[in-house]
Amino acid sequence: MSQQIRPMANHPPVRVIAITGCDGSGKSTLAASLVNHLSSQGSTELLYLGQSSGRIGEWIGSLPIIGAPFGRYLLAKSERVHDRPSTPPGNVTTLVIFLLSSWRAYKFRRMLTKSKQGHLLITDRYPQAEVAGFRVDGPQLAKTVGGNRWVRALRKREQELYRWMASYPPQLLIRLDIDEQTAHQRKPDHKLSALREKIMVIPHLTFNGAKILDLDGREPASKILDESIRAIRASLSSTRV
Predict the structure, then answer these.
(1) Cα 146 to Cα 94, 141, 156, 233, distances in angstroms
(2) Is the pLDDT higher at 175 or at 54?
(3) Burial grade of 1 (CB within 10 A; 0-12, 13-18, 19 or more)
């Protein structure tokens, strides 16, 4: 089991509908459908709150000459933490992971700003501070132990970032359940071990006391959408009372 870490106290829920679940559970499909259906009732935006390592890797890979090999090198460094968490990370690995977490925190700040302006945000994924690891949207450096003073300082700072983000629970969190066979059929390019870890951990996360709607990701997309919309409308209506 991944390392447990302590979350901060709650702020009031923010005007955000978060969607979480294992890869292949239908998060992206549901998020896009919700934006399409809710936009007619007010300003609604979609925001991806993953750590974006794949997208950052694509950007690094597009740089001339050194881009592709350098991008593969950096992301391999980050991914190695999943496989060898007991090995103290080096300076480069630590920096890469910390920058990915800082990028997620930057997107989270944008989300808070838009929420305060009255926009309804639909997020694909949501950061949590209960269990370590990027695979479950927690702090990655918290999976590691040891390291020099600089590594330990960045590990502590990353944990603070995630505790800060987790202190803002969403208005409603929709959690999509899936079994590993179905998930792997839908996402055959993903490691089965990674899917298994997410399926084991995500159902037990509380997201710091957020209101959670659990749905079966194997159900038809139309049924999942209908149930989600009903729950969202009920949640938003209760905040206006």
Answers:
(1) 12, 10, 12, 47
(2) 175
(3) exposed
Q: Domain with 180 in it: what CATH number?
A: 3.40.50.300
3-state SS assignment for residue 118 = coil
* Per-residue pLDDT tens digits for 110-152: 999 999 999 999 999 999 999 999 899 999 999 888 899 999 9
pLDDT category at 67 given cuts 50, 70, 90 is very low
Residue found under tokens 């890869």: 23
136 DSSP assignment: G
Alpha-carbon distance 8 to 27, whole Å?
Answer: 26
Residue 8 maps to a domain: no
H-helix or E-strand containing 124? strand 120-124
Q: Which domain holds residue 148?
A: 14-240
User: Residue 2: its pLDDT value, please?
Assistant: 47
Residue listed under structure tokens 């989270």: 108
* Measured distance CA(33)–CA(54) in Å, rounded: 23
DSSP state at residue 131: B
- What the block records as the tokens of 165 is 């983000």
- Are the C-beta atoms of residues 57 and 76 closer than 8 Å to each other? no
Domains held by the chain: number:
1
Q: 70 vs 9, 12, 65, CA distance in Å?
A: 39, 42, 9
